[in-house]
Amino acid sequence: MLASQYQIPENQVTISIIQTTPLFYEYQVREPDLIRGDAEIIKSLRSHFSRLFKDKKRNQKFLQNFSHEFAVETSGLFPSLPPDKVGTYEYYIFRDA
User: Fold this and answer.
1) Could you list the residue range(s) of the whole structural domain that residue 75 is in?
2) CA-based nearest residue to 48, from 68, 70, 26
3) Per residue in 27-52, pLDDT tens?
4) CA gap 62, 90 in Å, rounded
5) What is the pTM of this model?
6) Contact, 3 vs 18, CB < 8 A?
7) Structural domain total, the chain
8) Measured between alpha carbons, how far is 2 from 23 in angstroms, rounded to an integer?
């Protein structure tokens, strides 16, 4: 039985809490699906951000407004990406950090 469900703001991740017995709960996370080509873009972004974060000043500035800075950097690298894809990539990069 579904006990609770949460949508993470600004992306397509849903966390469900399911009651399987009276005293036991299970968590399920539904993440956005990746399509062909997404894995290569994410790999490229990881490589770019790992180089970027070696600069401590840049890293500190970036972390003050992570979502905005991520969108600016990603749009600079891949200008044709729609905003929803940028949000999906942000989720995967942040999740795996």
Assistant:
1) 38-96
2) 70
3) 988 887 788 889 899 999 999 988 88
4) 13
5) 0.70
6) yes
7) 2
8) 14
78 has pLDDT over 90? yes
**Cα atoms in the Cβ-side hemisphere of radius 13 Å centred on 52:** 17
Cβ–Cβ < 8 Å for 8, 15: yes
Q: Which phi and psi angles does 56 have, rounded to 5°?
A: -60, -40
Is residue 23 helix, strand or coil? coil
By the 10 Å C-beta count (0-12 exposed, 13-18 middle, 19+ buried), 74 is classed as: buried
Q: 50 and 9, same structural domain?
A: no
Instruction: Give the type of residue at 96.
Output: D
Six-digit token string for 51: 């180089």
φ and ψ at residue 33, rounded to 5 degrees: -75, 140
